[in-house]
Design brief:
Order of helices and strands: EEHHEEHHHHHHEHEEHHEHEEH
Strand order of the largest sheet: 1-2-3-4
Distance between the termini: 71 Å
Number of helices: 13
Radius of gyration: 27 Å
Helix content: 55-70%
Largest sheet: 4 strands, mixed
Number of strands: 10
Structural class: alpha/beta
Number of domains: 2
Shape: globular
Strand content: 15-25%
Length: 390
Amino acid sequence: MGWSFRITSISGIDIKIHATFFLILILGAVQWAGHVPENPLYGALFGISLMLLLFTCVTLHELGHSLVAQHFGIPVREIVLTPLGGIAMITRNPDKPLHELIIAIAGPSVNVLIALLLFLITGATMQATLLDARGSIGEILSRPSFEVMILWLFAANISLAVFNMIPAFPLDGGRVLRAFLAMFMSFSTATAVAATIGQFAAIGLGILGILNGNFILILIAVFVFFGAERETVQASSQAVLRRRRIGDTYNRYALSLNVNDRVSRVIDYLLTSYQPDFAVIENNQLVGTVTRRDVFNALATYSHDPQVTEVMRRDFLTVQADRPLGEVYALMTERGERLVAVFNGTDYLGLVSLEDLNEAMAILAFLEKQHTQQQTQKEPKSSPLPSMQS
């Protein structure tokens, strides 16, 4: 995900923070500084610490998903922390509904476990704090202290577990629902049903947020609504991709480069053809690739007009033309590759990018939908009245 930077890596999974993440720290600092007007700096530091501990729990939640996914052989590229929560970049959906079910419940289970540990370790302290307090619970939880921090984290983890189990994509509850449905129907149908339920849930969350004036809840509702729609499109597209081959998508009229060409030739091609990626050929063999980004980097680095061999990428992903589009898309996503070279045996055919595959998915899904509608219209409609026989 763009605008994010890596802070650590666990089990080969990069943990990243999105640039907007710091907004939640500022919000925590401002909110708690207001609770301690006599010492706002102390309140602000408490608020920042509380947010950092909360998002540590969020990270553990996403690691729960990720480590279980890795156990089932599904690569996980990274976990990104944003103000609205964490996102685990699991490269593909599990092949079996049971695996998706286990992966989905792993995250909320981590939050339940954290809440249980907090209660077992400091339960007596929490109870004493509440019993000894003279004010209301709201007043108790508004004054920074170690006990309040534990109580707040306990409640937050319970809330995370409960909220994420709402049956709405892309929340965990939506994936649990799809996993159950997929045990009795096709994956695409299960996705469509679960996504529809999720969108109704999102509308409910949005109305609740509007009535309560909760802007964060409204944002989450919008995120859930469009996330459910995106999941439906991806599921239907994947169903189509499984029936198509990567050899059907490469550009048969693509311009290519020779090892003796210079970057200026690539610039001419970029300006006149709008082709973003180019194969570098030597003796009818593919030896490298040059992308639009490579050209921009060369313009910023070199003061002369270098040969394409100086800027080309010599390591590239190769696949055979008869591989299904869905497999290639999953492979590229798993390896974080944007470009793939298509071969028929040892013969190079062409390049295919993720943008090409996304475009192919959209077109094929549209054609599939049109075909289904046409078939439905051609089917004879039965009469509502019983036929009469003489």
